[in-house]
Amino acid sequence: MTNVARTNASPDPLATDLIGSGVEGGLREQVVAWWQRVRSGDMGALPAIGGLVVLTLLFSTLSPFFLTERNFANLLNQAATLVMLGMALVFVLLLGEIDLSAGVTGGVAMALFVVLNTQFGIDWPIALLVGFAVGLITGALIGFFVARVGIPSFVVTLGLFLGYQGLALVIIGDGGLYRVQVPELLALQNGNLPVWGGWAMLAVMLAVSAGTSFWDRARRTKAGVPNRAMSLVWIKLAVIAVIGGVFVYILNQDRGQSVVAVQGVPLIVPVTLAILWLGTFVLDRTRFGRYIYAIGGNAEAARRSGVKVRWVKWWAFVICSTLAVASALFSVSRVGSVDATVGRDIVLSGVAAAVVGGVSLFGGRGRLIHAAIGALVIACITNGLGLLNLPAGINLLVTGGVLILAATVDAVSRLRAGGSFLRS
């Protein structure tokens, strides 16, 4: 029973803060352990990756524009907002909680930012810091009511979801709209790296990935914990180099429709990747991240082991709301304006992105990269159906069906994992 628990469960955060899957060894041992997890129902992001491949093949067959360089860059820009919101929600979903107010929190933050900057002439960095402060304070408020008072997160965040829509109307004004006049912020979703910048980004990714891997190995060796085979590190780096190289090469092609060349990796890509790496580092390589997984797996057991459950929940909601403001900033940068509806309709899509990517609604299982992959799946559906000129209703129907399918896979996989554990 012990061996099954180590291979199929999340890493035990109460024993150590060292990263590990619970199964070390060479490539063969890793593949065998992965296949055991899949057979027991823990498929991770595998269904989402399969769906992404199928959708790519389908839309590339139905539309000649889907796999063009221009649409590829456009798809990444479209997905960035949802990727960021999905990653924000992962921090609370891992706890078995929910934040329905994440979207409108970002909307209120952006409304306050644009009014302070446009109407009152406050410098944009200060106004933007005020906006992020709104996210931080909102997360702290939610965390207080959920962790201290004991109100279900669904109820607290639903109340804020309704109330913040009114607050955005008060700040912006009914029917009001402000244009963002900050070139630095508009460039987030509309600017591109120079051609050499894309290759520099890939080099940094490889260096950071290698450095992180070697640091993990050094820590595990010092602690007397077994390491995986060194060949796995080189395989990971080779995969990043090949896939990243293909992406950079495609995005460096001229996708302009005039004499002015438009080429380079969209600026939003390295920004999103940096936040993804930082969040993954927190969840995988810090005691706080391991506590999040422990609470999501069994909150009472974590509490009895000495974990400060209330404190961890409080900080998880703070991180979620703060990242939600970043998501709203991406959205505002793309459209170039702020109105009272910013963030109103995206939160459920954010939850869908996380669940489709393999993050469990029941807590304790999932990673930030899973939410990013799920967001790409949803963005691919929206983008592909748009190229086919199908009605928006079809988009909602397909997205809803994918979400139900993903939730069903999650529920069935948990039943299978439980049964496998009991049989052991």
Automatic annotation (TrEMBL):
Assigned keywords, A-Z:
Cell inner membrane, Cell membrane, Membrane, Sugar transport, Transmembrane, Transmembrane helix, Transport
Task: Please classify the protein's predominant subcellular localization into one broad category.
Answer: membrane
* Source organism, top-level taxon: Bacteria
Q: Which GO terms describe its molecular function?
A: transmembrane transporter activity
Q: Entry's Pfam families?
A: BPD_transp_2
- Location of the protein in the cell: Cell membrane
Report the GO terms under cellular component.
plasma membrane
- What stretches pass through the bilayer? 45-67, 79-95, 102-120, 126-147, 154-173, 193-212, 233-252, 264-283, 314-334, 346-363, 368-388, 394-413
How does the UniProt record describe the way this protein sits in the membrane? Answer: Multi-pass membrane protein
Keyword Cell inner membrane on entry: yes
State what this protein does: Part of the binding-protein-dependent transport system for D-xylose. Probably responsible for the translocation of the substrate across the membrane.
Q: What name has this protein been given in UniProt?
A: Xylose transport system permease protein XylH
The protein's organism comes out as: Microbacterium lushaniae
